[in-house]
Design brief:
By secondary structure, this protein is of the alpha+beta class. 24% of the residues lie in helices and 27% in strands. The structure holds flavin-adenine dinucleotide.
Length: 343
């Protein structure tokens, strides 16, 4: 374990923001993390756990210790004839974990293919895409208390998962290092009936375009990869952190008033009677789609994705986000809130 000083974080965040960390360290095991917590030099420093840096916006230098999680390993914990519980160390690449599950015919996370980042960050915001969220297959996670170094287990109820939410974003913010994640997946075989989720977005159309008439985990995963690759800007080419804002949820009453003025406003009725409205549509209606502001902008095909065209600072991106937020509030009276973690 090597403690580095004054390190640029540019290559460690997908926005490509060039800020520095006072201290930086990569950990390969829970023991190394505990060693860091005990270290006299840095135990009092402010700490930030970093995964793939794909859901974070640095607006200033980090005056403390950035801990890059590199704890690896995937194992089968238990299995029955129909299900398997797998445990992934937090430093595993999320997409590689999905591919591993697909290759082993374990169903449940194939719709979450190609989401950037590491397994340990997936429960942070209950990652979701194409009708699936991690909470649907979540079994439990192990986390290490940043103050005591003690191991704590969290089950589904403990995590308080919601739409891009969990207890780790609020009550336990920066209090735990999630060290591993266990998922309960379905063994898919010719003997089992497995319900593929293909009703969302363009999944069905893409499957038929690919002539994948016999559904399989691989076919669904490939279709999702194809859709995402064509729709979302690749952070390796243009800095971004995916959707910058969450889709707002408004009351039915507010929706009914708005839809009279904007009859084509897309909407999704929620189980509790509230209505979810796509933030991307609201932002587009405010004229931001494809707009370039200095070194930043809202992407030309996905207004919800804010991008770094080269040398943007985190502050520039944050200022743009605030301008967008304000214009949506003024036009629609709706508050949109960031999904990205702002540091
Ligand atoms: C192109 C693109 C597309 C995306 N699409 C989606 C999508 O479809 N659905 C979706 O939900 N998200 C999406 N995202 C967002 C992002 O990929 C996910 O939120 C991902 O889980 C973040 O993982 P990460 O390892 O990069 O986390 P980071 O950005 O490194 O960290 C995110 C937060 O989690 C904390 N954290 C990270 N690891 C740990 C840990 N082990 N223990 C405790 N805290 C930790 C960090 O301190 C930070 O607050 C997308 C991002 C991009 C760039």
């Amino acid at each position: 374990m090597q403690l580095k000083e004054n390190i640029s974080l540019k290559q460690f965040n997908t926005f490509g923001i060039d800020v520095s960390a006072k201290y930086f360290c990569e950990i390969n095991s829970v023991d190394e993390y505990r060693e860091l917590l005990d270290s006299k030099t840095i135990s009092a420093e402010k700490k930030l756990i970093l995964g793939g840096g794909s859901n974070i916006l640095f607006t200033k230098n980090f005056d403390g210790l950035v801990i890059r999680n590199n704890i690896r390993g995937i194992e089968i914990v238990s299995e029955t004839e129909t299900h398997v519980i797998i445990k992934a160390a937090a430093g595993e690449s999320w997409h590689n974990l999905v591919l591993w599950c697909v290759a082993n015919n374990y169903g449940g996370i194939e719709n979450l293919s190609l989401i950037p980042g590491l397994a340990g960050a997936a429960p942070m915001q209950n990652i979701g895409a194409y009708g699936v969220e991690i909470k649907d297959v979540f079994h439990q996670l192990e986390a290490i208390d940043a103050h005591t170094g003690e191991l704590t287990m969290f089950d589904l109820n403990d995590c308080h998962f919601g739409y891009r939410e969990s207890v780790f974003k609020h009550k336990y913010k920066d209090q735990f290092l999630i060290s591993s994640l266990s998922l309960r997946l379905t063994k898919v075989s010719s003997k089992t009936i497995y319900h593929y989720k293909t009703e969302y977005g363009d999944v069905k159309a893409t499957l038929s375009e690919m002539r994948a008439y016999d559904l399989s985990l691989k076919a669904v995963s490939d279709a999702i990869i194809k859709i995402r690759s064509s729709k979302l800007p690749d952070p390796k080419v243009i800095g971004n952190a995916g959707s910058f804002f969450k889709n707002p949820v408004i009351s039915k009453q507010q929706f009914e008033t708005l839809v009279m003025k904007y009859p084509v406003m897309p909407s999704y009725l929620q189980k509790d009677g509230t209505v979810k409205v796509p933030a991307g549509w609201l932002i587009e209606q405010c004229g931001w789609k494809g707009k370039v502001v200095g070194n930043t902008g809202a992407h030309a095909t996905q207004a919800l994705v804010l991008v770094n065209y080269g040398n943007a600072t985190g502050k520039e991106i944050w200022n743009l986000a605030m301008e967008i937020q304000q214009s949506v509030k003024e036009k629609f009276g709706i508050d949109i809130t960031p999904e990205v973690n702002v540091v």
